[in-house]
Amino acid sequence: MDNSSGKIDIYYAATGKAEKVDRVIKSDAEWKKILSPEEYEVARRQGTERPFSKQCAIPKSGKGVYQCVGCGTDLFAYDNKFESGTGWPSFWEPVSKLNVKLEDDSKFGMRRTEVLCARCGAHLGHVFDDGPPPTGKRYCINTVSLKLASS
Ligand SMILES: [Zn+2]
């Protein structure tokens, strides 16, 4: 169902609750103003950063949440991050299924599932079925699409 003008439910890790919020909709020109060229290329043009090219920020406390670089939506908890050896940050689940949108992606002759931010539509990465327990999923995410929440 496409209700692109309506409000959506987004989960907030800090409160553990979902809230109704407006989608974040901006023009390309507006996105270019708030994102770096590299962030724009990945988040808005479905680019992929080179593997091992970026260092994902690690929370000093060992606890933290990575948010969408475009709109600040909570996406993945550091608790659910694992070392996949792929050169991209990998998680076995998002903070909430509400906060990510999955879409079929058949570009480059591959059948993959694209992961997007549910609130602003930023491209985050892809999800695969070869992750660790408990979910068996591997959310393979571009570092530049994420920012560590300040806590
Ligand atoms: Zn977003």
List the helices and strands and how they pair.
Blueprint: E1 8-12, E2 17-21, H1 28-34, H2 37-43, E3 65-68, E4 74-77, E5 81-82, E6 90-91, E7 100-105, E8 112-117, E9 123-128, E10 138-141, E11 146-148
Antiparallel strand pairs: 1-2, 3-4, 3-11, 5-6, 6-10, 7-8, 8-9, 9-10
The chain binds zinc ion.
Question: Can you put this structure into words, describing what you see?
Answer:
With 151 residues, the chain is mainly beta. Helices cover 9% and strands 31% of the residues. The protein contains 2 helices and 11 strands. It has a 6-stranded antiparallel sheet with strand order 5-6-10-9-8-7, with no helix packed on it. A hairpin with a 7-residue loop joins strand 5 and strand 6 (90-91). Residues 68, 70-71, 73, 117, 119-120, 122 line the site of zinc ion.
Short account of what is shown:
The chain has about 150 residues and is mainly beta. It has helices at about 30-35, 35-45; strands at about 10, 15-20, 65-70, 75, 80, 90, 100-105, 110-115, 125-130, 140, 145-150.
Strand content: 25-35%
Mean pLDDT: 94
Number of strands: 11
Unreliable segments (pLDDT under 50, ≥5 consecutive)? none
Encode the helix/strand succession as letters.
Answer: EEHHEEEEEEEEE
Query: Which strands sit side by side, in order, in the main sheet?
Result: 5-6-10-9-8-7
Largest β sheet strand count, sense and barrel closure: 6 strands, antiparallel
Total count of helical runs of at least 4 residues: 2
Radius of gyration: 15 Å
Quickly list its features.
mainly beta; 3-stranded antiparallel sheet; 2 helices; binds zinc ion
